[in-house]
């Protein structure tokens, strides 16, 4: 139950368990998850010293409780705290809720019932079994090797997997897909002759109520099954998938289902057979249906061999163009998993218009906790404010539903940022992104600053330090605005990309400008940006419902932070902020570095309040962040000064 | 003696041997190289059918002949052709000379004596024993794996090595360094416990008079010897190198010596001990001296972690700045091996000023046959005209010596373009670069067009085809101007680089613009180029003697083709050609593609005159060359149109 030795306890340090550990606890009920709860309580009590409080905590199952399968009711009165749930998972989530509340769990308060807003809260691990010599083992992973796979097979050291499951459950996550959506040869076989390795992992994850999913190749009937086709309407293919699903459930009774990346970036898909993506998803959905399983079908389909000379093709349009017309055609147990933005996890993107266009399809929204384009866990970049903005966006305007509400059919998914690193996430402060993702999946309208507070209290136990307030305010200063800071010193005003090709770390203003990936900024000596208006551009803006189709249509109405995503404007264009585009670029790049320097300075002042190893690691990473931030500043500013010829109004040094 | 099955005969097809094979041949003399000669003649006769001619050919050793160790005298009179040499190597070179002459070897002519102008004519193979997952086995190799190393050890199939040696001897090459100048861990051990593998290769190479060299690590006394220092002035280090040299010569009596890349791109060197490069070279030279061996010490030393913001540092200056002051300090058996240009084998560079600045040092000039920056053996790019220009350059002006003459102390070296590919060089037409290098090393003032003619006659046997003149003129059209064509569609006017980082293939105008490698073009909206003048720039131009220091000093006197190497000028600057810089960029990029298209068309017309497999391979490579050339054209033109805003006077399509 404790992390393996040397592994960080993240948001479940022993100090966070004292509130429970020091009290008398009664647990009523049976079953595996109740056993897990009992073990948690025993561990907490074993580490808390003698029982001191006189309050009781009661965890009880009540089949009649109106909590749903994962919710719980919390009552606090007369010195007794009671968690009631209709099902064991609810008791476990209630336990972690009490941990989060700390001392507040033991003061009288009105009864509250907590239910997750989204029933599917899944991490996708882009983990491979094999280690690629350049990409490493985890695609876009910045936290060491895989937590699940080691030396070519499922990790023998299961304690680590269980410790991970515990952390995930403690922030509300209830599903994990254990292999990369790009399914390579070795990994394809997890579906068939290597399913027992998946089952072993699933056993550990299941102890904390997590369901296991598997990424599968659409071509599996050919590659693994020896068929001459993967045509989803072919009966042999249908039979093959059914057998494969039966096989999976025979080994893993609580198996969740499959994740599929098809017809995308070289992965096989239904297009090869002239079939639609609904056809493709449905044949797999049908195979899973008898077992209650779900297929997560990714909507990340676009032309990745685009000609940069062709300005009529717009990658941003692709998800809508491919999937909007298929609305209503997917089976009930098929979920369309859509990236939150139309491109690829840039530091700033508009919300994908396809999310609001699928009223008859179960939609899951996909976030990226791993910081591929946001500093690769060498930069501090707390993503909760970005995600909160996405989840609160209302695709049909003020009176419509939020993205968080629209995702209730499919859930919220995040690409994991965790790996075999002792701090789980490489950068110790990147743990917050994992935590915040789980909490937002449970409650999409949670306040990100409140989540930061929660995480800070749990992880750093300020009350146990010499100066709780200094620690709290320091951590707040370092993390709260870190996403905006990162945005300031990287690609401006929603234009995106401008990274080094391939690994995506560090500046490369023209890095993707003449590439086949559909990711351009079109900067010339006069201006910059992509015209995606209906009137004169690619028409992408018209994929939105009103009011957004109008808001985004003109430079005048478009929000500053997305201006260059939607419009090509002269460097002298005046933003709503009152600044010209070029001066905004210069100013934000100088400011971003200054803010990062200030954050580094704040971190230094916390040395006496943070565990030395953790403090040192973050301090070391700040050195790299600052080096990189200065490189971003200077390359971006030099690029635009050389191109525009317009000097910085502030007269600062640009090379 | 023949190539292993499936391996191309290159410039020694059976047809080329008929002139000798069909005649009576007398060979007088003994020794290994004479045995090789006898075997060559026997092979030629075995493949020529019955003896037909009535002329004799006589090969004779005459210790008194004034031919030097490798030269020969050719007499042709009265129907008898006689090759006389003072040493066996001369007879072998004479044999290949007779092959080259073809029928002309058997017509009466005045006596001629041929001696190589340069005594060292070496190929450097950047071959590793191990295969790197990204770089492959041969660094910057485009012709398959290594000819020498396979499956982690010296190749078992020695026939191939011997066939290679034969081709090299037939164009005049007399030395081969068999491993990469970047000496990795495995390869370091070739010097010590794996020397017998080198000896096995040397045995095959020696059959054709080729001496074997080995690249060694300057840190070998530490890495292999277990010493705590590699300080060249430390007696233990001195002893270690002496023992290592003794060991090498014990295994390889005709061993050539060592090649060392020190203090360069991460390789260790004497700077770490506060010693000069003369100190470093001399300790190794001293170890080799008792055996008559030579150390080739590379002058490729520069700061590869430069800050792009720093305009005062100029990589082009580095070789001169490091080595000019050391002139006269190197031992007699130390050769300073200098790249022909100051940067790194770009399609156009000035001749390195350090070559003319070392009157008391043995200098070897290093060329690059492998087409790292010139199309990677997917583009046709015949380099002989470039090399001829380098070798004919006179660093001290009209009355001074040529580079070819200045290299007489150290020789001419080329990085090999050959590998395990069946055509030896990947692109079949790249064989010409290997051939031309050898011939220019023997005779630096040879006419490159004459060499092309020689190579064409040998390799394609036009007289045996249905239309000799069409084949000759077709090959001439395809190859003769191919270097200029490649230059036209790539980086303009000597500015260099503008390639994709890392692999260096394909356009990346800003690919190295903000990198640490010291390779910048400084293009902005107003102009482009690097100011290397003495008056206002980095002072590099002043490293030349007169008249070049003056010629290069001003844009007015600088040759057009080097203008942007030496000067930063506005896009509207008018070249000596009468065109502006920007119009020159547009025009050459359109022309370059048109010329490549025309060459492709010419090649297509030769289908009936060239062996089908060879023809098809070249035709297939032309597809890639044209795709790539158009990408170059469009990216470069778009980049400069966007930056300059100046339209093409020709009104052609720029994206």
UniProtKB/TrEMBL annotation, chains A, B:
InterPro entries according to UniProt: A-glucoronidase_C_sf, GH, Glyco_hydro_67_C, Glyco_hydro_67_cat, Hex-like_dom2
Organism classification: Bacteria, Bacillati, Actinomycetota, Actinomycetes, Kitasatosporales
Gene3D superfamilies to which the protein is assigned, alphabetical: Alpha-glucuronidase, C-terminal domain, Chitobiase/beta-hexosaminidase domain 2-like, Glycosidases
A Pfam cross-reference name: Glyco_hydro_67M
Protein name: Alpha-glucuronidase
Residue stretches in coiled coil: none
The UniProt record lists the keyword Hydrolase: yes
PANTHER family: ALPHA-GLUCURONIDASE A
Ranges where the Glycosyl hydrolase family 67 catalytic domain occurs: 110-424
Keywords: Hydrolase
Domain Glycosyl hydrolase family 67 C-terminal, residue spans: 425-652
